[in-house]
Prior knowledge:
Layout: H1 5-18, H2 25-31, E1 36-45, E2 51-62, E3 69-73, H3 80-96
Antiparallel strand pairs: 1-2, 2-3
Helix pairs in contact: 1-3
Amino acid sequence: MTEHAMLEHALIRLDDAAAHLEIDPDVIEKLKFARETTKVRLMIRMDDGSRKSFLAWRCRYDDTRGPTKGGIRFHPDSTADEVETLAFWMTVKCAVMNLP
């Protein structure tokens, strides 16, 4: 499985759905890529006073309908692919429900 397997699977579903709808191909192309994905390190002071570093991801997927839909994750096993995929699905869900 590739590093981007989750998002690749989601985009296959997008192509499958688009085949049944009259959607401008430019819209589909735009939905294939996150607007911005940021990787940061959070320095957190632990209960014992020590500091620990955590990798964190934030994705802003699409702003066509207003505020960007996206997500924030900080977990040792989290990846950019996971965060981008969750942000993609949030974008789709909001569009289906006609939310900004």
